[in-house]
Amino acid sequence: MKVTDSKTQSRNIIIAVAMVLIIFTFSSCATKAIFLQSAVVPAAEGSVSVKEDGNKNYVIKVKISNLADSQSLQPLGMHM
Fold first, then answer.
1. Which residues contact 51 (CB under 8 A, 6 or more apart)?
2. Of 6, 19, 32, 41, which has the most beta carbons under 10 Å away?
3. How far apart are the C-alpha atoms of 70 and 54, rounded to whole Å?
4. pLDDT (tens digit, 0 to 9) for every residue of the chain, 80 residues total?
5. Cα separation of 10 and 20, whole Å?
6. 63 - beta bridge partners?
């Protein structure tokens, strides 16, 4: 049976926590986000990308496709 040192266990826990924080840091700075599927228009797809230019301004691009004609949509909560 192998006995592990408490310093080794503490170090491994600290490394694991640091790795999780690094992963969350990079994922929170994502430059592209995908829109969730809508119950109103399930075929619609969309994404947003954000970039910072050389002047510290943000360029935001929104791409949406497969939208339904607005005349064929019903407001939420109204069932005919």
1. 31, 58, 59
2. 41
3. 38
4. 455 577 777 777 888 887 777 766 555 555 787 878 877 778 888 888 888 888 888 888 899 888 888 777 776 665 55
5. 16
6. 47
